[in-house]
Amino acid sequence: MADPDKLTDEQTEKTKKYSIVDGSAYSIMYGFGEQYVTPFAIKLGASNSEIGILASVPSFIGSLFQIIGAELTDKFKNRKKIVTWFILFQAIILLPLFFVPFLTKSMLWLTFIFSLYLIFANIVGPAWNSWIGDVIPDDERAKYFSTRNKLVITSMMFSVLLAGLILNYFSNINIWTGFGILFIIAFIGRLISWYYLTRQFEPKYVVDKESYFSFKDFLKRMPETNFGNFVIFRSLIAFTVMIASPFFAVYMLKDLNIPYWQYTVVLLAPMLVKVMTMTYWSRYSSRFGSRNIMIVSAVLIATIPLWWFLFGIFFEGKEFIFILLIFAESISGFAWAGFELTTFNYVLETVSSEKRARCFAYFNVVFGTAVMLGGLLGSWLVANIGVVIGLKTIFIVFLVSAIARSLVAIIFSHKMKEVVIKRNIDETKLFFDLVLAKPINSALHQTTATLMMADKELTKITDKTQYVLTTITEPIMPHVDTVITHIDKGLEKAEPFRKSLEPKAWRKQKKKDYKHLVGHKYNKKLMRHFIKGKKHGSGKSKK
């Protein structure tokens, strides 16, 4: 008899399928809405420091509501209801963004609306993470989330691309209409996401009162536990990332003044690479463990602002800097694909089911605080340090972020333990193997395989074409030969008539023009050879 507290196989499969559709619809909201909040703020006239605040303070305020989300989850024991209600509120809050440019250009209102948007998203977080963690079996997580993330990012790519084209079209007509269309499409995307969340099934949520622990207890024990060290590591990565990440868009749209279509292409580059490499990271995550892949990808993440720094220093003002930024963001996509996949899986691996909602909530509060502090530090640096040794302020911010990311990755690489893979792994060797050796080898293999396949297909096409031509021409060739023979004979008979019509003056002129060839030694040899061959042939025919 089936356990009523657990999902049937049919319910599990439906929930897994609908979760992918829900995620794809969410990516429409993210691609049309959240991704273009920064360009929207820049167009409203936000300063560089205001952009930093917009990217960090609402995230911090939202993260505080994760604790409320965890409390609601434990109190009502109905994760589905909490998720669906607050997702609906999040969709509705997108609509006021349409009216902001027509009512006020104040960053305060935009920050307030964006904070509400993230508050509703964060209340949902603990319940959804606990819910999906209970639905997906342990041995399927890496594969399932790899597939889900790949499809979600693909949907996000098309959303970002279409949004960029819409903005580019309206940039010379009415840019506020363009942004308004984007936010309405984002609202529709979240409504679709909400609908498919309502169709998913939830296993019974059991609250173990003995496993309860307060946020204060969590903070005290954080340095002593594996999950606590992960929270510190992930939050410090977020802190160092936020020093620079809000200003990549600022640098492109303000300093480089690139058009919206180029901005969109740069946004799409990491998404495309994520789709292409998600399976790669999933395969090696199962083989080497989530923690080890997390460290490898964190080291690679540290190089991202360094690429922006170097390209800005040496190639700003060059037309091809656009291509270089695509290269930098492609590395970003490769690195973040591995990092995002393994960080989520690592939480599921290290936290038991009954503690999952609360642990996600506490983690996100610390994470959100780090995001805010990093964004504020970046904003302060942009506003106060000025030009140093000839370097623009924004370049110094990129460099500071790169150094800070590297230090966090190096210092914390030995503080977290791998919980699934028990054998010792050389992280340095693994980094060069996964980041350089295997991708290059795979690229060479794929290139060779593609060329061989192309050669094989070309041979098939050539053979088929030859067969078709032979099939078509074979029945008619005798008739064609007959026609050509008749034409040749007709031309021979007509030749005397043609000569008789040719004026004598033309004939004399031709003789004069070709006279030097008549007595040439090579022509005499050819003539003798021709006459000899003709006699030999006639002799054979007589025999």
Any key phrases for this structure?
543 residues
Care to describe what's here?
- There is one protein chain.
- The chain is an all-alpha fold.
- Helices cover 81% and strands 0% of the residues.
- The protein has 21 helices and no strands.
- It has helices at residues 9-32, 37-44, 48-76, 79-92, 100-103, 107-135, 141-170, 175-198, 215-221, 226-244, 246-255, 260-288, 290-301, 304-315, 321-350, 356-384, 393-411, 427-473, 477-501, 504-518, 521-542.
- The radius of gyration is 36 Å and the shape is elongated.
Task: Write the topology of this structure.
Elements: H1 9-32, H2 37-44, H3 48-76, H4 79-92, H5 100-103, H6 107-135, H7 141-170, H8 175-198, H9 215-221, H10 226-244, H11 246-255, H12 260-288, H13 290-301, H14 304-315, H15 321-350, H16 356-384, H17 393-411, H18 427-473, H19 477-501, H20 504-518, H21 521-542
Helix pairs in contact: 1-7, 1-8, 3-6, 3-16, 4-6, 4-8, 6-16, 7-8, 7-12, 10-16, 10-17, 12-13, 12-15, 13-15, 13-17, 13-18, 14-15, 14-17, 16-17
What's the quick description here?
By secondary structure, the protein is mainly alpha-helical. It has helices at residues 9-32, 37-44, 48-76, 79-92, 100-103, 107-135, 141-170, 175-198, 215-221, 226-244, 246-255, 260-288, 290-301, 304-315, 321-350, 356-384, 393-411, 427-473, 477-501, 504-518, 521-542.
SSE pattern, N- to C-terminal:
HHHHHHHHHHHHHHHHHHHHH
Q: Count the strands?
A: 0
What general outline do the C-alpha atoms trace?
elongated
Low-pLDDT segments, ≥5 res:
none
Oligomer: single chain
The number of helical runs is 21
| End-to-end Cα distance | 102 Å
Beta-strand fraction estimate: under 5%
Overall average residue pLDDT: 82
Helix content: over 70%
The main pleated sheet reads as: none
**How large, in whole angstroms, is the Cα Rg?**
36 Å
